[in-house]
Amino acid sequence: MYVIRDVQKSDLRGLKKLAHELDTVNLPNDERMLSSAIEKSCRSFHGQQRDPFKREYLFVLEDVRTERVVGTSLIIAQHGTRDAPHIFFDVYEKEHYSASVDKHVKHRVLSIGYNFDGPTEIGGLVVDPQFRGQGKPGKQLSYVRFLFIAMHRARFCERILVELLPRLEEDGRSPLWEALGRKFTSLSYQEADRLSRENKEFIQQLFPPGEIYATLFSQKIQDAIGEVGPETAGAKNMLTRIGFRYDERIDPFDGGPHYSAPTEKIEPIRRYRRAKLSATPLVDDGDTQLEDLLVSVERSTGRNRFRGVRTSCTFRDAEVQLPQEAIDVLEAKPGERLHTIPFET
Asked: In angstroms, how far is CA 131 from the centroid of its own chain?
């Protein structure tokens, strides 16, 4: 069993180990960046960052048996402000016709855009490869963000965005960046991505402001625009099942597609429920109809402000029964308010 909780400063060592093994865009092997992310998350969960739309919430997935951090996920309350705009390429078609030669052609076009009042973004999803598929840890980390947003609707925007990773080269390079971004910035994909986390001015100043015809790229790059990589296909399918749709926009660095949905129409958020913990633990007798849920408890003080677990349960009026193991993992008390969303496999 896993527990999903808010990151603590004491998690730095575990995150460094995970980042050292993976060194992904979502979890860079950089102690300063990891420390900054942890600090920002702690301030957000504790309410020390007063503007809710400047908060970033970092969740960690911990193996209860070993107390090892095996994954992360993130909510950025608002991605796209005057200081740090949300930047993207709009993707659309343009048609041209020449009467003199009777030729009609269609071109896919990229046009850079900026959003200064952006949506909430979910991202940062990382799972240790050794634990993938064991109890669906990736889906738990993904869904916990919907649960937390449902618990605190006023802290988040009316639309939720997710930027999916495309197919990258074996060495981590982005074909689109090599064909486009590097030529205008003289930066590698990794350098530009890390720089953009703190400074987006260079994109606005160095990228071309007009339309870029994708026809100029190789067929391989054209085919990849808006497509996800093989490791991201499962996440795309899950997101589309619960209400997300392709925005006809891509990331200007790697060409990964942007998917979004109205917050209120996302299926797990729509089916959010609250109930008090029953004093009687759930015992599966084979006759009781059980639900597979993601369940959380939240407190204003203590070691963790947030703790969540995937578990079977059953509702009885205004109460919910959980197995004793789940109660222990949540460190919950009878009568305490619990928050739930369905976890459908």
From this structure: 19
What per-residue confidence (pLDDT) applies to 25?
67
Residues 6+ apart with CB under 8 A from 209: 112
pLDDT at 84 over 90: no
Stated length of the chain? 345
For tokens 């930047």, what's the residue? 87
3-class state of residue 211 by DSSP: strand
Pick the CATH number of 271-342 from 2.60.40, 2.90.10, 2.40.40, 2.30.30: 2.40.40
pLDDT at 345: 54
Average predicted confidence (pLDDT) for the chain: 91
3-state helix, strand, coil in the chain (%, to 5): 30, 30, 35
**76 touches 125 (CB < 8 A):** no
Averaged over 96-111, what is the pLDDT? 94
Alpha helices in the chain (DSSP H): 12-22, 31-45, 137-151, 175-176, 182-185, 189-196, 201-206, 219-224, 233-241, 267-270, 324-330
Correct CATH for 2-87+114-267 of 3.40.630.30, 3.40.50.720, 3.30.360.10, 3.30.1450.10: 3.40.630.30
- The residues that bridge with 94 in the sheet, in sequence order, are 107
